[in-house]
Design brief:
Elements lengths: L1 H6 L3 E2 L3 H12 L5 E5 L4 E4 L1 H7 L3 H4 L7 H4 L4 H14 L1 E11 L3 E14 L4 E10 L1 H52 L5 H32 L8 E4 H19 L2 E4 L6 E4 L1 H17 L6 E8 L4 E8 L6 H4 L23 H11 L4 E6 L3 E9 L3
Parallel strand pairs: 1-5, 8-10
Antiparallel strand pairs: 2-3, 2-6, 4-5, 5-6, 7-9, 10-11, 11-13, 12-13
């Protein structure tokens, strides 16, 4: 339509020719078209216009365009086109207008307009073609959004691989060094030295296991292959089981693990995912708490039927700047524990994914030298 209008080189000799011209031209148009006289009253409209915009012929002919359909066409950008731009340019192609019509909803339209002179009367008519490009625009926006998401995913993937490369390399290097020392110098070790090396090897393997477990869960989550099976769970029992798995680590550092969650608290959650969240939060709390400190797990119900669980430690705390980066892949910070325990890197990112899967949130409150409290929310039982 835009191309057709731009090629029109017509001058009508008299007003009588208007009717003939409009009948001929309008009958060939498959898109919504209006013919307006100089006062912007409708002379003719194509069948497509009536069908598309739910207007009847007797409501349109002779009516000023701005009064059509009870003023639905009183559109500021259309006024700008007809009253300001067109008088100066005489023709305009692909002028975009977005408007919410009461009859058909929000539409994005491309307007193509041309003034056609009537020589004998020194007058003119306006041919206005309307193309509904709403679906096309929405499709373009969807493609653009998907492209942006793809770029973001590729960026996340690159960061993810960088984390894997660093976090796997470091503990393996340490483990290889220890095993090499054991194989070459074991007969020279005293019992005390052998015990220390064995302990270091155990810690390294433990860290590697945690990292590999997180990597596996993260990969499953990203490709959508991890089942989400929420059920009614005893929250106190679930936390107590996780505390038991961390008791030995706590004893090694003289840290007390305290479960303050009441027995009557039940949650509606996926057991495996919440176990992973609790395991990572408890592990971090122990890691960043000095000897003879404590880690306390509490829970309370919010007004919106969510349970807020907190893991509070008396550890070294986190700066405000570092806390803001904890849950983003790009802002991952690498910090060792109070006894040089290495971090797995992905634990908190995994926690955020799993909590988000439950429709909850996770956040941290911390003060350097005082301690940190990590909070997350999950649904209460049905």
């Amino acid at each position: 339509m835009a191309a057709n209008l731009s090629k029109l080189k017509i001058k009508l000799k008299s007003a009588d020719e208007i009717g003939e011209f409009t009948e001929e031209i309008i009958s060939t148009m498959r898109e919504p078209v209006l013919v307006l006289e100089k006062e912007l009253k409708v002379i003719k409209a194509s069948p497509a216009f009536y069908n598309c915009f739910k207007v009847k012929p007797d409501e349109a002919i002779g009516t000023p365009i701005y009064q059509l359909s009870k003023g639905q066409w009183n559109i500021p950008k259309l006024r700008e086109l007809l009253e300001t731009i067109l008088p100066e340019k005489a023709t305009l192609d692909n002028y975009e207008v977005e408007h919410d019509f009461a009859t058909i909803g929000k539409r994005i339209m491309l307007l193509n307009a041309r003034k056609i002179k009537i020589e004998s009367e020194k007058e003119h008519i306006i041919l206005l073609a309307i193309e509904d490009v709403t679906k096309h625009k929405r499709f373009e926006e969807d493609i653009q959004l998907r492209n942006e998401q793809l770029v973001a995913l590729n960026s996340e993937k690159d960061k993810f691989f960088s984390i894997i490369a660093h976090d796997l390399k470091s503990p393996f290097q340490g483990f290889l060094g220890l095993t090499q020392m054991m194989s070459e110098e074991a007969n020279t070790f005293s019992a005390e030295e052998l015990s220390k090396v064995s302990g270091d090897m155990y810690k390294t393997v433990q860290n590697l296991f945690t990292l590999l477990k997180n990597l596996l869960e993260w990969a499953q989550m990203q490709k959508g292959s991890m089942d989400f099976q929420p059920e009614e769970l005893s929250l106190s029992y679930l936390i107590e089981e996780n505390v038991k798995t961390m008791i030995e680590r706590g004893i090694q550092k003289g840290i007390r693990l305290i479960n303050m969650v009441p027995d009557y608290f039940y949650a509606y959650a996926d057991q495996n995912m919440i176990n992973s969240v609790l395991s990572n939060l408890l592990s971090n709390a122990i890691k960043f708490t000095n000897r003879n400190g404590s880690v306390t797990i509490s829970a309370k119900k919010n007004d919106n039927e969510m349970i807020e669980i907190s893991v509070a430690d008396t550890g070294v705390g986190i700066s405000r700047e570092s806390a803001a980066k904890l849950f983003s892949l790009g802002g991952k910070i690498r910090t060792r524990g109070t006894e040089e325990e290495p971090g797995t890197g992905l634990g908190l990112l995994l926690c955020k994914e799993f909590v988000g899967k439950h429709g909850g949130e996770i956040w941290v409150e911390s003060e350097e030298g005082v301690g940190s409290t990590f909070y997350f929310t999950i649904r209460s039982n049905k």
